[in-house]
Specification:
about 260 residues, 10 helices, nine-stranded mixed sheet, alpha/beta, 9 strands, Rossmann fold, about 40% helix
């Protein structure tokens, strides 16, 4: 379905019925990356909301310059859908950065957090400069610049070539303006590490055992900083755990969402 909000038209996949859960995709992907996990969550009794962020997938809108725009869009989307109050937010990679920003702005809309293959820290100066330089290249040459650079870092050793090729094609197809804008927004994001202790909702951290972009040590920082956060390491997965091992990621989320021991304090 497509939902009009101020300044954008957001495409949204809705799967299943039951308590809602929001899945936020990573960079430079779309809602399609969550579909295998989303189907399993829907089978487990959840209404799964999977939007394309502004400019990605089938969503339309001017490129972002900061992650707060994504948060504003998502909150507006939830309002249009009459999803009031708090619900679980699940953020993968850049989607985790969006979730941190949402927590800073509207913690009342977040019932729980699942942070998948992401990190709390901001870019160091070299990484920030690298993102900004890449954004300029994407402006000139297209999204294939990002696809070619990221592909070798994304997967576990056992991930088959066919899946690698499909991911490369999906990244190459991403709209260059959205890709460049998101690079600039991520370069400008704040460091969330000092405020992890303020996250007061139940939290699950998931990471691929072979993640080379946000490795398990980054996940351990999250678990060490967020009170009572739980860690799940996914075997035979790199940075793209939701695509490489969707059943394992979905089962971890289903257990987390259902476990009464992890109810909000």
């Amino acid at each position: 379905m497509e939902v009009a909000i101020e300044g954008a038209r957001l495409h949204l996949a809705v799967l299943g019925e039951g308590p809602p859960v929001l899945l936020v995709h990573g960079f430079p992907f779309s809602s399609a990356m969550w579909e295998p996990v989303g189907r399993r969550l829907a089978e487990g009794g959840h209404k799964v909301l999977i939007p394309d962020l502004r400019g990605f997938g089938k969503s339309k809108g001017a490129p972002v310059s900061d992650l707060g725009t994504f948060v504003t869009d998502l909150l507006s989307l939830l309002d249009v859908l009459w999803v009031n109050g708090a619900l679980p937010w699940v953020g993968f990679s850049m989607g985790g950065y969006v979730a941190f920003e949402a927590w800073r702005r509207r913690p009342d809309r977040i019932e729980s957090l699942a942070l998948v293959d992401t990190r709390a820290g901001a870019d160091d100066p070299a990484a920030r400069d690298g993102r900004l330089a890449t954004a300029l290249r994407v402006d000139r040459e297209g999204s294939g610049v990002v696809a070619d650079a990221m592909l070798p870092k994304l997967f576990a050793a056992a991930t088959p070539p066919s899946q690698r090729q499909a991911v490369h094609a999906a990244m190459t197809d991403a709209a260059p303006a959205a890709v460049a804008g998101a690079l600039r927004a991520m370069a400008a994001r704040p460091d969330s590490t000092p405020t992890l202790h303020k996250i007061s909702v139940r939290t699950l951290v998931i990471v691929g055992a072979e993640d080379a972009i946000t490795p398990p040590r980054d996940a351990e920082v999250l678990v060490g900083g967020i009170p009572d956060a739980r860690l799940r390491v996914v075997r035979d997965a790199g940075h793209l755990a939701p695509l490489e091992q969707p059943a394992a990621v979905a089962d971890a989320l289903l257990e987390f969402l259902a476990n009464p021991v992890l109810r909000r304090r």
